[in-house]
Design goal:
heterodimer; A: mainly alpha; 8 helices; B: two-stranded antiparallel sheet
Chain lengths: 158, 500
Amino acid sequence: MNDARVGGVIFLAISLAYGYLASEIPLDFWSEQESFNARSMPQLIAAAGICCALLMLVLPSAPTQWRELSRLSWRQPAILLGLMWLYALVFEVLGFALATFVFLNAAFAVLGERNILRMTAVSLPLVFGFWLLMDSLDIYLAPGDLIEALLGTADSHD
Amino acid sequence: MIDGLLLGFGAVFTVQNVLLVFVGCAAGTLIGMLPGLGPISAIALMIPITYGFDPTSGMILLAGVYYGAVFGGSTSSILINAPGVAGTVATAFDGYPLARAGQPGKALALAAYASFIGGTLAAVLLVLLAPFLAGFSLSFQSADYFVLMVLGLSLVSAFSAQGEYLKALMMTVFGLMLSTVGTDLSAGVQRFTFGRMDLIDGISFLLLAMGTFALSEAIMMVLRPAHGGKPVSLEHASLKLSSKEVRTVAGPISRSSLMGFFVGTLPGAGATIASFLAYGVERNLAGRVEPRFGEGNLRGLAAPEAANNAASTGSFVPLLTLGIPGSGTTAVLLGALIAYGIQPGPRLFVDEPEIFWSVIVSMYFGNLFLLALNLPLVPYIARLLMVPRNYLIPIIMFFSLMGVYLVSFNTFDLHMMVIVALVAVLLRLLAFPMAPLLLGFILGGILEDNLRRAITLSDGSWSFLWDRPTTLVLCMLTVAAFTTPLWRALLRRSRGNRHD
């Protein structure tokens, strides 16, 4: 089975689920009487999705290079995606400056950089340059719960 | 008209105003280059600074910021595939591959030339046709807008590889699905939010654009190291276009400028649709060319750039003549004008001729200064791509994440962006194009609004599709645009069966 057929089956399932959820959108009595309500557009889109998926299953398409895809090394991309997930997770705790500094250096290291001095020479000015720019534009970047707790400034913001 | 233009030139040509255009262009370019901070944010950030000036000088500064931010957005699209605003998405399709092929200088310079010509032609058209076009834009009804948006969606064929039309169509529908997430503003009902507060406002365009373009591109560069493209040397930062290349892009720039201007005059249509339309038209007109569209074709870069700048100028027609903001940016400019104590509308031309004409003249000078300021900087900006890959990729990730965070200040968006990037990488590996997804997402909301209005006005009947000649013609064009690629696919299949 090529990728188009696999895609067709998956998209058919997505469209059916979307169509079902569209029919579950809550409507009051008056909205139900209207010729166009909150369900109308999603139902039209679901119908279009089902048509597309069925056409995908029926019409021809180019074969997939599955072998080439299986040769790809997913280790580094997976770690980078995990790092970004972690960055988002600790951003409010560590604050912009610390979280970004750690994220950047970890990402440099994942991609093969080993010179700590060079990594710091890039990440530190970037973090503080960005913070200064945001500050000059009056965009507030919080120092983070941890720093605020350490400095005892958390209460002053509440 | 000549008197008015002279009045405008007289108002703009002072040392202070010339300096203000210069400062505005520089500040706009810098702010526009940051993902998440497009022309709207740039202008909104600069408005408080303009309160110290008279209205003419204030508008001149804002015009400089506007054009600078549009060009800055194109720069990040071209260099790191990070379109910060919807209007520069189409710029990335060929601009980024061209930069990756070792010609970032040429890509940036061509974007600057195309923007300049698009903006200049549109400023001339604005002077000549503004009163007439104001009437034309008012004659466009919801039904026409709806069909125009569907016609825009039919452009997916322009973004699909040979025989992959259905994949592009599927991604468009997927984009439409995503556009319905959030609160339905007409009824106040939540749709597809699964009870999560974070989804009440829907998915932001920036999140989707950064996830599917910038972040997924960074991951692809790691996954397939050859995908990172050729290393850039100083000679590759050259801005020179050969005379053959100039001849190649001259036609697309002229056509796209005209199209962009007229689309821009329609309130709500704006630079995004103009740039997608221009790209689609040029791709269809070009036929089989090398390099192909999507692989660094010069026409594919010049057309959307000329169109989005011309549309930005075109969107001033309803603002200046009717007081109706045609886009988000002109809505902010309308706010600025009102803050200066000026009410845009049919009386502006009579009551405040100096403002009317100086805005038009300053738009032209904004473009001119932008070209003069940025061309010498292009070789230096292009050197960004000389940064080693193990530093460049994390920096792209950082700017993409921060661009999204700065809009919502919500880390849920960052998590969602990582998921979007992962799905986008998988889809790209299976040759599913990302541009139609964004196109469907961008047009989804406008499509629904206009369909709702059209159906309500026609008492629930679909007869609005053929009641008026304009709608009917647009409908026929749309049907042709959708069915032709499908017909071709069916023909290929029957030929394939015969060969078997």
